[in-house]
Write a structure and sequence with these properties.
With 160 residues, the protein is α/β, with parallel strands linked by helices. The chain has one domain (6-157): Rossmann fold. It has eight helices and five strands; from the N terminus they run βααβααααβααββ. It has a five-stranded parallel beta sheet with strand order 3-2-1-4-5, sandwiched between helices. Helix 3 packs across helix 4 (67-76) and helix 3 runs antiparallel to helix 6 (86-96).
């Protein structure tokens, strides 16, 4: 598969890369971003989603909690967050990728996201991603989320 020279990378791409089996094209893509062969854009929404989902998964695995129990534990037991390994490791790895640029979310981004959410029916966190892309002129979005197909300025790419 031929990958774009630059693209926004959705959180689900990083999360799918944690799976041990399969996803060889996805892992090849992320390797190219890691070594700066592809310019990858993210924002704080992506980092927040990666941290949150990785944290909940680790708590569920370690404590044998349900999703709801793990979520509740993150609110009530601050020491539990401090003991986590995977979420902190993921954030460290992502921000050290040579090809990664973290885009700001500012007032302009929020205003654009609000319009996109209303016009395209996207959830606000997805609208923030779309707004960053629109403002920065990023054409490609590597994602597994079909909701982005509702935009007329993004080309969602599924590289599994």
């Amino acid at each position: 598969m031929i990958f774009p020279d630059s693209c926004f990378i959705d959180s689900n791409i990083f999360l799918f890369s944690l799976r041990r089996k399969g996803y060889s094209q996805l892992k090849e893509f992320l390797k190219k971003v890691k070594f700066g062969e592809i310019k990858g854009y993210i924002n704080s929404v992506v980092l927040s989603e990666v941290f949150h989902k990785t944290a909940i998964t680790e708590i569920m695995e370690n404590k044998r909690f349900s999703y709801q129990e793990a979520l509740k534990a993150t609110k009530e037991e601050s020491e539990l967050i401090k003991q986590l390994k995977k979420p902190f490791k993921m954030i460290d790895e992502i921000i050290c990728f040579e090809g990664i640029e973290i885009l700001d979310i500012n007032k302009e981004t929020v205003c654009e996201a609000r319009e996109i959410a209303e016009e395209k029916g996207l959830l606000f966190q997805d609208s923030l991603i779309a707004a960053n892309c629109k403002i920065k002129g990023i054409e490609y979005l590597v994602t597994n989320d079909k909701d982005f197909e509702r935009t007329d300025f993004l080309q969602p790419l599924n590289i599994y």
